[in-house]
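The authors assume throughout that readers already know how a fold can be written as discrete tokens. For illustration, here is how one protein appears when written out as sequence plus structure tokens:
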Amino acid sequence: MNPHVLRHWNLNPARLPIPPLARVLDKRTTGATPPMHARALGEAAVRRTVRHVVSKKEPRFDPARTLGLLWRVDEKPSRTGLSVDAIVTAAIAIADSDGLDAVSMRRIADRLGVGAMSLYTHVPGREDLADLMIDAALGSLYSTIDEPVSSVTDWRDGIRFVAERNWILYQRHPWILDAQGARAPLGPHTNDKYEAELAVLDGVGLTDIEMDSVLTLVLTHVAGTARALARFDKVREESGMTDAQWWEATAPVLERVMDVDRYPLSSRVGTAASLSYGAASDPLHEYVFGVERILDGVAALIDRGHTGSEN
């Protein structure tokens, strides 16, 4: 791994907003008071209107439908050549270039040279699209399902390999950090990823639950530090100030308000850290440091298991 190269990747994460249509439907279907013109239509007419809009524009989220889309179950070829793969590829290209906020059915349709409504036949909603994008992006993580375990000689290097690949993934596709939900999209690439990454921990002395927990710990740490790096880059971009310029601007005030006698530890440690990082913190350092400490902890867990089995 060459951490110095990683510093120069440019991240532009963005958050996926709730589309106006979804906000309207949410208000109409959760008991909120409808606007005056809607009340004039009568409750029955409003219900018919909402059902029509939902069916034609943005269907309710259906996890079973999304799962079928992820695995391309019963996918039918289009006479125009439009497909789920084409839509997802265009969406990822837009997100990589301009962030997740820029991804819309209209923007995708313009890129593909088709009408926006034709996309909904293949990808019914934004939730479906987000899961499809994440799963597709994971397809580039490893060349084969055996790559993580076949590229290393021991489990520690295996975990480092997995951590680095996921770190690089977030630099290439920073929008994934904002698109991910609490439930992973259980598509083919997501399942390949899980199988490939568990393999580096198989047979080292961990139980199945411990294997899953260790992998989750590593991936959560990588995502957290990648998110911190994305925030740092966003702050630099929006403020127009480098870290050195920020320190130069704030140093005179800090010298006046920071009482070394009251904060002896934070003054000493904070000064040492800021001089080392050249900033308030260093997400890249935190990423590498954290992975190594996780490895130490896993080694202790394995040793404890071996000691227990001998007794």
